């Protein structure tokens, strides 16, 4: 979808940057992800 609609590229670029930021924080142990079931949200 994104490849077919280049208008969204600038928006998806921010998603990619955010994803790398989160992965880096996870690797360093600065961030912890905890599973929460949908009924508890």
TrEMBL record:
It comes from the Eukaryota. This is Copia protein. It comes from Nymphaea colorata (pocket water lily). The lineage of its organism: Eukaryota, Viridiplantae, Streptophyta, Embryophyta, Tracheophyta.
